[in-house]
Amino acid sequence: MSADAPAERRVAPSRRFGRAAVVTVLAATVAFLILPVAYTFVGSFAARMTGVVPEGFVTLENWRVVLGLADTIGSQRSMGWTTVVALPGGLAVQVPAELAFSVALALGGVAINLVVGVPIAYAVARYDFRGKEWVDAFSVLPLVPGVVLGVAFLRAYPDLSATSFGLVVGYSLLKAPFMVMAVRSEFESMDLRRIEESARSLGASWPRTFLTVVVPQARSGILAGAVVCWTLAAAEFNFSYIVYAKGTQPLALFLQRHISNSAFPKAAAAVSLFFCIVVAVTVALQRLGNRGFDAIGGD
Amino acid sequence: MARVTLDSVTKAYGSTTAMDDVSVAVPDGETLGVVGPSGCGKTTTLRTVAGFETPDAGGVYFDDSEVTHVPPENRNAGLVFQSYALFEHMTVAENVAFGPRMHGVGREERERRVDELLELLDIAELRDRDPASLSGGQQQRVGVARALAIEPEILLLDEPMTGLDAKLKARLRSELRDLLDRLDVTALYVTHDQAEAMSMCDRIAVMRGGALEQVGSPAEVYHEPASEFVAEFVAVDGIDLDFLDARRA
């Protein structure tokens, strides 16, 4: 003790090295994660890939194939395009059929998750009730692998096999735990009882309190849950593979189709396309969420 | 503002009696401090007046009308919490306007009330700020403004000063006291801090084990305690005796 320098003259090692260490680790991690994405994206514009370095730049052929714009045959055959909005004068806004289909399927799953998951998360965070532990356990139970749920699902509801509705319900069930966990932790960070009692003493009925005060205040958790559920549902391969039969393919199967038995540049285009969709939907959900909650909160 | 009366209110949770035959009246414009050790039933008393607890027996009256079974949203009782519980997704002005909006008050009248209250509480410049960016003292004023915006029958203050640092507390204490005097509101002030209640309230109700031990002016409670418990409970440092005597006069 006596050999120690005065406390104020010693700079804690965590102070001296902490910041630099955190920045270095963070930068290294980000670089490590970004590199494959960037490599894939660049590779998707290459014509050939014989070694490690793609060559034959710049071609859009790979993107044309995965977007269904090129003539393809056999298992690689595209599902074509769907008209989303028909404009006067013969013009139309078209999107690749399977992409639109997948985006919509996953969004359907998210919608069910919101309607079912948010109230469950609220009940568990706000109230003590008999059987709370069971509700808790059941709400995270569907974390079972998609294969397991898929098989069980087909056995229990044979009528739902190979239907879009079956896929939507399955996605929502499989991803429900992520919604419940994200929203629940948000609710638990709020002083729910006092916030509600304030709103009610100010003249808001309980349903109005829930919709204009509780839900908008938990929006960051709800948005996070929605984004996570959507992304995971869109990429869910196992369940889709088991339940899906024929017709327009969910995104995960589309990816698989383009990745297996394909040269790297084409697989790269499919993966890059998926990345673009994820980013676009995430941004769209965030914006929609912010606007939507403002609409609820306003009058 | 109204006269608020509790008439023989009893409330039990299982085998614990939270309120045991409590009868007390808060005359129009008076601030009644409800004090006592934790678990004495003071918070239950406040929640019963607000409408979040229904008595097992007895009644609650605002003026002459019984509100015992009226839900909280129809009681018009303004609530200020220790944690303020401001709506984080709304600006200061929107927080204050929330109550009037729920009561169907038109936009113009709402704006007028918001301006008036923010002015009154000296926080007009915080109008468009987010609650999360405010200091504890500022949040408290917003909380008070929000509760007053519904022109409540009674203002219910639940430990409004707890958690603030001592210096700020002293300042807010005198500010809030001035405000309560000036507005002439009927108020119920629940706190575990005797000194705070003695310096803020017109009368004090000392509770113990769900029952009222004594109700009287701060000077009465201090100088003529009704029981040994009250005498011990109010004998604490930090009581402004000059203020006590001034109030008695």
Characterization of this structure:
- The complex is a heterodimer of chains A (299) and B (249).
- Chain A has 299 residues and is mainly alpha-helical.
- Chain A has a domain at 97-297: MetI-like (MetI-like fold, Orthogonal Bundle).
- Helices cover 67% and strands 5% of the residues of chain A.
- Chain A has twelve helices and four strands.
- Chain A has helices at 13-43, 61-66, 97-126, 132-140, 146-156, 164-188, 192-201, 206-217, 219-234, 238-243, 251-259, 264-297; strands spanning 48-49, 54-55, 81-86, 92-96.
- In chain A, the strands form two sheets. Chain A has a two-stranded antiparallel ribbon. In chain A, strands 3-4 form a two-stranded antiparallel sheet.
- Chain A is globular, with a radius of gyration of 25 Å.
- Mean pLDDT of chain A is 80; it is low at 1-5.
- The model of chain B has no long low-confidence stretch (mean pLDDT 88).
- A six-stranded mixed sheet of chain B has the order 6-7-8-3-9-10, sandwiched between helices.
- Chain B has two domains: 1-76 and 155-249, 3-Layer(aba) Sandwich (Rossmann fold); 82-151, no CATH class.
- In chain B, a hairpin with a 2-residue loop joins strand 4 and strand 5 (65-66).
- By secondary structure, chain B is α/β, with parallel strands linked by helices.
- Chain B contains nine helices and ten strands.
- The chains are: A mainly alpha (299), B alpha/beta (249).
- The interface between A and B is medium-sized, with 20 and 30 residues.
The total of beta strands of chain B comes to 10
CATH fold assignment of the largest domain in chain B: Rossmann fold
In CATH terms, the superfamily of the domain at 97-297 in chain A is MetI-like
CATH class descriptor of the largest domain in chain B: Alpha Beta
CATH architecture designation of the domain at 97-297 in chain A: Orthogonal Bundle
| Main sheet characteristics of chain A | 2 strands, antiparallel
Query: What global shape of chain A is seen?
Result: globular
By secondary-structure content and strand pairing, the structural class of chain B works out as: alpha/beta
CATH superfamily of the largest domain in chain B: P-loop containing nucleotide triphosphate hydrolases
Oligomeric grouping of the chains:
heterodimer
Provide the succession of SSEs of chain B: EEEHEEEHHHEHEHEEHHH
Strand count, sense and barrel status of the largest sheet of chain B are: 6 strands, mixed
Helicity level of chain A, as a percent range? Answer: 55-70%
CATH architecture of the largest domain in chain B: 3-Layer(aba) Sandwich
Helix content of chain B: 25-40%
Note the total helix count of chain B. Answer: 9
Structural class label of chain A: mainly alpha
| CATH level 1 name of the domain at 97-297 in chain A | Mainly Alpha
What is the helix tally of chain A?
A: 12
Widest β-sheet, arrangement of strands of chain B: 6-7-8-3-9-10
